[in-house]
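Students often ask what a 'structure token' actually looks like in practice. Rather than answer in the abstract, let us consider HNH endonuclease, a protein of 121 residues. Its sequence is given first.
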Amino acid sequence: MKVHVEELTPEEIELCTRRHELKMLLREQSKATNGGRIACTYCRCDMTNSQMHLSHIVPPSQGGQTDAENVVLSCGQCCDSKFGRTLDGWLQKLDTMRAEVCRLLNQQPRKQEQATAEAAA
Ligand SMILES: [Zn+2]
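Now compare that with the structural description of the same chain:
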């Protein structure tokens, strides 16, 4: 990983500048539409400047560009969770996780019922 500005190519410097400008633009849009709050586009949690991430709607790995039409502000958790996925792909992952949580929670009461029934017998 390059850490010194001198090591960056002009294209990398331009991308860093564009990302920073997009973050500032989206931050101001978020504040204007959320009563002064900077909110994650996906989960709506409050964020500070240092917690803001740019999330690509269409990931760069699938041809998505780093421009105002393809990026939103998101929190770190949403950004990490969505990473490399399209919105549809991410929602499918979340549906799978939700189904698994429901399956696990539905098992819990059954176990307790069994334990109660065994204790009463
Ligand atoms: Zn979020």
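One point worth highlighting: The chain is about 55% helix and 5% strand. Ask yourself how you might have guessed this from the sequence alone, and why that guess would often be unreliable.
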